[in-house]
Amino acid sequence: MGNKNIFDRNEILVEFARNMPRIRKKLGISQSELGKKVGLSRQSISSIERGIVPLTWNTLLAIAMIMIVNDPDIFMDLSDDGRFLLIIEDLKTYS
Question: Model pTM greater than 0.70?
Fold first, then answer.
């Protein structure tokens, strides 16, 4: 059984969205800047961060790629987290 069967993507999406402001600020990226990089408006990023609009899996992957490009070590503390491995598996399919 792979990680995809163990973890609920919706839970990952909710947790990731909840942590987006902290991670974005750590990278020094504004909502507008992040939105431009992933093809969303600043308002959309704000709505995702506030939990008004649900984060989609494809948007999560796009944001994760931006984060990795800006700071390759950003996810080092999550390397033992199976949920992180699920994201990495999906990112590999896009590269």
Answer: yes
